[in-house]
Design goal:
Chain lengths: 442, 247
Amino acid sequence: MTTLSGWGRYPRLDCTVRFARSERQVADCLGAAPLIARGNGRAYGDSALNAGLTLDMTGCDRLIAFDESDGILVAEAGVILGDVIAALLPRGWFPAVTPGTKFVTLGGMIAADVHGKNHHKEGSFAECVLWFDLATADGPVVRCSRHENADLFASTLGGMGLTGVIVRAAIRLKPVESGWIRQKTIPARNLAAAIEIFERSLDWTYSVAWIDCLATGANMGRSLVYLGEHAKVQDLGPAQRKDRYRTGRRTSRRVPVDAPGFVLNAYSVKAFNALYYAAGKRAAGERLVDWDSYFYPLDAIGDWNRIYGKAGFAQFQCVLPRQTSPAGLAELLDTISAAGRGSFLAVLKRMGPQDSVFAFPMEGYTLALDFPVSPDNLRLMCALDEIVLRHAGRFYLAKDSRMSAEVFRQSDPRIAAFEAMRAASGASERFTSAQSQRLRIR
Amino acid sequence: MSSKTLLVIGATSDIAKATALVFAREGWDVILSGRDATALEADAADIALRSHQRGSISARVLDILETATFAPFLDSLDILPDVVVCAVGLLGDQAQAEVDPDHAELIMRTNYEGPALLLGHIAHRFVARGSGTIIGISSVAGDRGRASNYVYGSAKAGFSAFLSGLRNRCFKAGVHVMTVKPGFVRTRMTQDMDLPKPVTAEPQEVAARIYRAAMAGGNVVFSQPVWRAIMTVITAIPEPVFKRLSI
């Protein structure tokens, strides 16, 4: 028995853990008891926890083949994205879609259908997935793609591991001319200004905004919008051109202990936000940033989840349709700033159209922020849930650790069809997680 | 410019794979050897991709218990390697070993007799050539036998003494022998054990230490410096006290 949790360290659950390093070992674990596969544990909540059996797939971590002619990488599901970058960026390739951390497994990326700062232009990780081999409820490992077992393919992308265990996959990378990003920082004095910047910058490949979720009144929603493009050779300085893909080792720090609970409070966060916004305003304009700092800023701080203390934190991430976003985001931010709660990690992204069986993204705006776990904050998040429902939005399961089954069911009309598929394939008996049990997904 | 060659014995072990990768990234050619040809081929492809294919990575079958195959195996290699890492190990089950002599014998042969005989063959060829480095992965468990794993520990103790003697013999011939003594390492071998995080190393950590020490001519290397201190204490405990302990 091992005590496991997600990245938010809430909730924690004692789980029986088994390790699989091969397809055969995965098959050995598919017994009578339901299980959930687990990657690197970067989902924030209980998506990869199952007290009965959690199948750790991180030992299934071999790269299998890479085709330079089309950028297709075949690899086992436990391969870490950071290792893909280490192996292939020196040869001029980068993940076509990447989430905010590189410490995730390919299987986890598929199961959560992760997205990045380029969803409005290039879609979710599903767009990069050619096929995967899935260990299914009745035993055999099947090849799933848009042409083979297409229904299973579609429901596994974003299916949170509830359709089977991904064993290996073929994913597409994109060719890049350097390891640098041309970043443009634009301060936005409030939410309307931020939205306007996003809407006029849709041709930039990457866009993301850091939002001051505690700013009030006329400043409500003040943000720093970061636009980005992979730097071409002509964008580089002479020193960088010598070795286009090597951007230097970034110094990393580690949070050595759990911070005490009072560190993140209304005053400290407000003060941090004000300083951060001011610094961002001064630094407005274009500069070259290395890929690691641009895509994975938090990865530099090892164990950054400890800043939230022993009680852990809960992530709130929703997506609102385009039409309701201005009003919905305003109401969310009003509620958060009125309560004086929130953290300095509040992120806004623009998403493009997506029509999936169960995955999170839809065209509109997605807001993500964290709250230290406390009874008051859990109540606040319930209030935020209601705002999202009233604006026809939905929630990102890879971040969720506390949503109620009722709210979940109201948020997503696709659930019944997903459940029917699970019942028909026997997956409902074989693959469950603490999250699927909490949300009462059959 | 011809690259140097590393031969890894017991290459499907986590420490072995991590070590092979470190050398491959430095441009070495690597030969992975072990019993499972399919796993070795897959590992070779993985290491080649992770090391940007700077050197060539190949796989050969070798069973550490099949002593008669050692000479033909070495003959079959295109060249005599520059460095050999022997990472063969079997933790086994102490309780079973106490009642099942076949299991005890398997632990002893896999951890001591097989590796020692193979490295003896290799040392002979290295001495004839006048160069080479032999790296044997033993264990801190060999520094003192204790109730919870002495069948494994005693075999590793034999292996450590063999390596030390080999080091002494080969020194004059310009051949270097290094002993690696891992403490707790997070691998397949220990995956069901509850290891204390501060004194448990990752295979990548151990591999980096092995490479650095090998290049610097180290003699006895621990997986983490703290383990040298831990074992100094463990070996210093007087026997009348030690025999009463449950560690």
